[in-house]
TrEMBL record:
It holds the Pfam family G_glu_transpept. Coiled coil: none annotated. This is Gamma-glutamyltransferase family protein. InterPro entries: GGT-like_enzyme, GGT_ssub_C, Ntn_hydrolases_N.
Length: 538
């Protein structure tokens, strides 16, 4: 059975149309990266090779959201089975709450070496290539190497966020450890302008070494030596032993059944379970129409309740007091559903921060499909670039708590609550396809809205992405996009919601979708209208 779509959602159409193809498709937030993935497909690679090529290319052509020094997660559909890969790195073994507090911090800092955790992205590329890839990793990384070495012109959305990050970093980054960031990403003393060529030979050399050694140099070789030496020289906790000990983990994806479809996510430490908990609450309600106050009210309330549970329980699974199965049980969903009242409630979790991430989806003509997400967190991450490598390190450790009683309390060797989540949809044991919405704590909220737009309201992939979004912030505060129906916003205020209209669309995530018709094999894709998104296909 295939998805049945109504006509394009007229009030919210963009200039993009749904894309159809048969032999292969790559959807992501940057046209050059999408084309790189397609080129690999045309060279004989499969959807897994294309995903790796696209991800590596995104570290070059969208460094405002991800880098070689970030984390990654993947859901891979191949030969009738869904596989999950968790390539998020732990905190360095030598870090501790006491040590961070002794250094003068009352909470985990955003920038510098302290929030740096072991990068997982290069290991994800190598492991995906080893297990499911068809072409050599060095060949798959070649498009990214070429763009880093020869340069590319800055695209509009990229240029906007690059300038914003540079302006902030000029004000808040002060210290030797940040010098390499400015040398790498602001070589002329400013952010590169839209249309200007930017390149990084160090980045190219690092990607080549990762490809040539199948990732070994990054964790147990020359690149690991450079990272460890920079950490030691600049007061960091990351050591060569931390890097050498890291291995990505194959995990069993988790799911909820939602109106006949199975919605899949990576299990904790990722926050995908928050999206599933919200859908588990919402499946007990009936929604006659998308554009009603009751629909939005119930969505927002379910999301708040799911976040309350997520922030209370989700962390490194070895440190969780409950299981994913318990959180996703029908009984627990019913219990949370009964907490949805007629007016807005105030849930328990604290204020969600913003995030920076890239998401991509790939598919090939053989039925392989990949949902892949990669991030440095909060844009450029920690502000630390390892000298001579182009490796911009993530600041994922910022999410750790310095309260030893908190479930997500900092500990050496522990993985933190993780915001980046790939999604996947199946029906009756057959792949429907990958989907994702990047953007910090917006991600599970985007997943819920895209899934409901697709299943409940029969919107095609492009319309499902284009429809105006809402985002719960904290307490009763909810942001909505400018295209959100204002009469419904006013009625939500009457229910106790504190509605704020956001003029900046970048706050609401950036998504991609590829659906596959199981009868014909035809691929149908949508890409984000809120960024430089593109679909490459053939």
């Amino acid at each position: 059975m295939t998805l049945q779509f109504d006509s394009l959602y007229a009030p919210y159409t963009s200039q993009r149309n749904v894309v159809y193809a048969k032999n292969g498709m790559v959807a992501t937030s940057q046209p050059l990266a999408a084309q790189a993935g397609l080129d690999i497909l045309k060279k004989g690679g499969n959807a897994i090779d294309a995903a790796i090529a696209t991800a590596a290319c995104l570290t070059v052509v969208e460094p405002t959201s991800n880098g070689i020094g970030g984390d990654a997660f993947a859901l891979v559909w191949t030969k009738g089975e869904l596989h999950g890969l968790n390539a998020s790195g732990p905190a360095p073994k030598g870090i501790s709450i006491a040590g961070v507090k002794d250094a003068g911090h009352e909470q985990m800092p955003k920038f510098g070496w302290t929030p740096v955790t072991v990068p997982g992205a290069p290991a994800a590329w190598a492991e995906l290539s080893r297990r499911f890839g068809r072409l050599p990793l060095i060949e798959v990384l070649q498009p990214a190497i070429d763009y880093a070495a020869n340069g590319y012109p800055i695209s509009p959305t990229l240029g906007k966020f690059w300038k914003r990050a540079h302006d902030i970093f000029r004000q808040v980054l002060d210290g030797e450890e940040f010098t390499a960031w400015f040398e790498t990403f602001a070589p002329k003393g400013r952010a590169p302008e839209v249309g200007e060529i930017w390149s990084s030979l160090d980045h190219a050399d690092t990607l080549e070494e990762v490809g040539r050694t199948n990732g070994e140099s990054f964790y147990r070789g020359a690149l690991a030596d450079k990272m460890a030496a920079a950490s030691a020289a600049q007061g960091g906790y990351l050591t060569k032993e931390d890097l050498a000990a890291f291995q990505p983990e194959w995990v069993q994806p988790i799911k909820v059944s939602y109106r006949g479809y199975d919605v899949w996510e990576i299990p904790p430490n990722g926050q995908g379970i928050v999206a599933l908990m919200a859908l588990n609450i919402l499946k007990g309600f009936e929604f006659a129409s998308k554009e009603t106050t009751d629909t939005y009210h119930k969505q927002i309330e379910a999301m708040k309740l799911a976040f309350a549970c997520g922030k209370e329980y989700v962390t490194d699974p070895q440190h969780m007091s409950v299981t994913a199965e318990e959180l996703l049980s029908d009984a627990y969903g019913q219990d949370r559903r009964e907490a949805v009242g007629a007016t807005a409630c105030t849930p328990a979790p604290g204020k969600p921060p913003r995030g920076g991430t890239v998401y991509l989806a790939t598919a090939d003509g053989e039925g392989n499909m990949v949902s892949f997400i990669q991030s440095n967190y909060m844009g450029f991450g920690s502000g630390v670039v390892v000298p001579g490598t182009g490796i911009a390190l993530q600041n994922r450790g910022h999410d750790f708590s310095l309260n030893p009683e908190h479930p997500n309390a900092l500990a050496g060797g522990k993985k933190t609550y993780h915001t980046i989540i790939p999604g996947f949809l199946t029906k009756d044991g057959e792949a429907v396809g990958p989907f994702g919405v990047m953007g910090g704590y917006m991600q599970p909220q985007g997943h819920v809205q895209v899934v409901m737009n697709t299943i409940d309201f029969h919107l095609n992939p492009q319309a499902a992405l284009d429809a105006p979004r809402w985002q719960w912030l904290e307490g009763k505060r909810v942001e909505v996009e400018t295209g959100f129906p204002m009469h419904i916003a006013q009625e939500l205020v009457q229910k106790g919601h504190q509605i704020e209209v956001a003029l900046e669309s970048g706050k609401f995530g950036r998504g991609q979708i590829i659906w596959r018709n199981p009868e014909t094999g035809v691929l149908m894709g949508g890409t984000e209208s809120r960024t430089d998104g593109a679909i490459a296909s053939w």
